Amino acid sequence: MLIAVVDDEKSVRSSLARLLRSAGYEAVTFPSGEEFLDALDSVLPDCLILDLRMPGLGGFEVLSRLANRSRHVPVVMLTSFPSAESRKQALREGVSAFLEKPAERSVLLQALDAATSART
Predict the structure, then answer these.
(1) What is residue 83's three-state secondary structure?
(2) DSSP letter assigned to residue 119
(3) Rounded distance, CA 114 to CA 110, Å?
(4) Longest Cα pair distance anywhere in the chain, in angstroms?
(5) Cis? peptide before 102, omega within 30° of 0
(6) Could you read off the pLDDT tens digit of each residue along the chain, which spans 120 residues?
């Protein structure tokens, strides 16, 4: 199962990729929403771990562009800046889980399992 990680922080991308691989997932990382969207013709992940706040396209903009392209990918959103409003918006937009960074390993893996099992 392929999980895409989109986060502007290199250390977050690296640690999440290591975690995913150790849990048996394949991982591909992108430093921006733009780079992820550009790669969609060649890479369609089974799930997306998406940072809410990034330079350029933020998480909500990436979700909107995915929807405009009719690409339906389960999303686990991560943020260092959680708010009740952003959580509500994320859930309204169909995000499977909205987690605060740093997410505990078990919580993140449970969220991924729930997101990917709901897709099948």
Answers:
(1) coil
(2) H
(3) 6
(4) 35
(5) yes
(6) 999 999 999 999 999 999 999 999 999 999 999 999 999 989 889 999 999 999 999 999 999 999 998 888 999 999 999 999 999 999 999 999 999 999 999 999 999 999 998 655
Identity of the residue numbered 113: D
Domains of the chain: 2-119 (3.40.50.2300)
Q: Which two tokens stand for residue 90?
A: 């994320």
- What count of Cα atoms within 13 Å lies in the side-chain half-sphere of residue 61? 12
Quick count: other Cβ atoms within 10 Å of Cβ 75? 24
Q: Which positions ≥6 away from 20 have C-beta within 8 Å?
A: 3, 5, 26, 27, 112
- The predicted model scores a pTM of 0.94
